[in-house]
TrEMBL record:
It comes from Vreelandella maris. InterPro entries: DUF3080. This is DUF3080 family protein.
Amino acid sequence: MAWRGNFFIALTLSALLAGCGDHPAEQQWQTYHQQLANDLDQAGIERANPMNIGDFPERSARLIDIPETRDSMLNIYALRECQITSLIAARNNQLGRVAPPSQQWLYERTLWQRLSTCWNSDVPEQLSDEDRTRLQQLTVTKTAQLPAVSWNAIFDSSEWVKSFSRASQPLATVDENTITSQLEAIDYLQRMTDHQFDLDWQQDSSALENHLKTLQEQPLTAEVLRALLLATQRLTEANALLAQQKDVTHCLRRWEPQSLERLVDTAQQWLTAINRLIDAQPVDKPIAIQRYQARWLSLENAQAPWGQFQQALTEHQALRARFPTCSDN
């Protein structure tokens, strides 16, 4: 019976390995490679597996350390006119302590809003010197900490982290509705970040959670990056075949890279939004995030996936231009 189990395992592994090449994004490149090889009377194009994206930094490396603010509830009660006692009490209960990062973000911003509003009202005049000083110090502390709180809320959320998952596939098709909803999710995080010190701007808890849920539905950052890596690999392989052809009298059938053009538009739009959000916070970004951003997300670094793809595409277009276009298309 043991041989049957081993046979089943081997069969399953073979199916999984075969399935890698059946991914829609890969099939498009297989078709194009075969077209080029046929046009040039070559047996085929030597192919290799593209690299995967790097690991997203560990939690401890991507978060900013924020000292815990401690004070007795008696002292907090003395500031009850600021309407923060029930807010802090809810935060300190058992459920409040295990709230997800998004809810902690909402709590900290609401606390800052109430403290700032209170400090700029006539309440401080009614407080004792000691309580007035306490209110001032607490307001200053929470104001200084808010950008780091906002940063941690995003980078500690499972929804954000999942967007960079290595356990993903290259983006095969660009669904406009999906891309739009994902961009709207990033835009809401951007607006929360941009308006974090705006007393008149009110965050919406349900909107925030819904947008985070949208991000969790698809690891779009990873899919875009892996699609760029795949495209770069396949273009580089095609370039090698074209470059070694001494006889440039062969005609090439027209290349209709509409799917590649959609990838270019989506990747540029998505990476621009992601980089803008990462750069929005007035904080010293953790070194690990700086390195990850430069290596994988940058639109300027020639060694990042976007830059490597652009180089491979430019070279491919130049190499194709050496050959005439077949007239029977």
